[in-house]
Amino acid sequence: MDPSGAETISTTLIVHIIDLLRQEFDYVVIDTPPALDDHVLAAFDRSNVVALLATLDIPALKNLKLTLETLDLISYPHDRLKIVLNRSDSKVGLALSEVEKTLKAPIVAQIPSSRDVPASTNRGVAIVSDDPKNPVSLAIRKFLDDYVFVANGDAIPTQMRSDRRTSLRRKK
Question: Which ranges does the record mark as transmembrane (predicted)?
Answer without folding.
Answer: none
